[in-house]
Amino acid sequence: GQVGIGTLIVFIAMVLVAAIAAGVLVNTAGFLQATAEDAGQESVNKVTNRVDVVSTHGMVNQSGGSTTIDTLNLTVRMAAGSGSVDINSTTIKYLSGSTARTLVHNNTSTGVADPNLTNNEFVSEPLDDDDTSYPVLNSQADRFEVRINTSVVEGTDVNGTSTGDTVKRLFERSRGICSVSYKRAYGPRTSGPRPLQSRRCRPRTDRPTYPGSRR
């Protein structure tokens, strides 16, 4: 009788241990599944949520015998197959021959001439936005203009990006990274904006080296 009771106690203890272990395994499996789903969604966003840069131009300032590009203007739209892109959650990595900064969107600024604009901010405005979704690109027809005050970004001792200078990297990020690469700022023969070279924004999977870019 005592042997039977002892065996029963051991059996019950084994069942309890097995139940606890099973509970731990179930919880772990649930956590791993949730983590995998989050990682998968993030990967999908990196591939699908991106923008195309339609055009790029610089505003030229000619003063004191020198010519500088004071403002870079990028017209962007939602890329084909992309989900909605919120400009407020977008960052731009600005890298020139003398400056490297990560820029965030200032959604309260009055424009690039705003004296309160800091050297790590960019501004934007809607150009075509039929459903007033700004600052969210949610249609192929939407066009927003992103503006970077290079005089502010480059620092107080610099008037802006000089004509002929190269902006080696310009990244747009919206839960993913794509690039507008190797932009050369040429000043016009007459005053006024002059288009810069531009390249389609695309997902970035490596760190290419562009011939002729300054290091």
Question: Could you outline the blueprint of secondary structure elements for this entry?
Answer:
Layout: H1 2-48, E1 51-63, E2 66-78, E3 85-86, E4 91-95, E5 100-105, E6 121-128, E7 136-137, E8 143-149, H2 150-154, E9 161-162, E10 166-173, E11 177-184, E12 194-195, E13 202-203
Which structural class matches the secondary elements? alpha+beta
Q: Which sequence of SSEs, written as H and E, runs from N to C?
A: HEEEEEEEEHEEEEE
> What is the CA-based Rg, rounded?
27 Å
Count of helix runs: 2
Which percent range describes the beta-strand content?
A: 35-45%
Q: Bin the helical content.
A: 10-25%
- Poorly predicted residue ranges: 166-215
Major sheet: 11 strands, mixed
Based on CA inertia axes, which overall geometry fits? Answer: elongated
Account of the protein in words:
The strands form 2 sheets. Strands 1, 2, 4, 5, 6, 8, 9, 10, 11, 12 and 13 form an 11-stranded mixed β-sheet that branches. The chain has a two-stranded antiparallel sheet with strand order 3-7. Strand 10 (166-173) and strand 11 (177-184) form a beta hairpin. 24% of the residues lie in helices and 36% in strands. The chain has helices at residues 2-48, 150-154; strands at 51-63, 66-78, 85-86, 91-95, 100-105, 121-128, 136-137, 143-149, 161-162, 166-173, 177-184, 194-195, 202-203. Mean pLDDT is 71; it is low at 166-215.
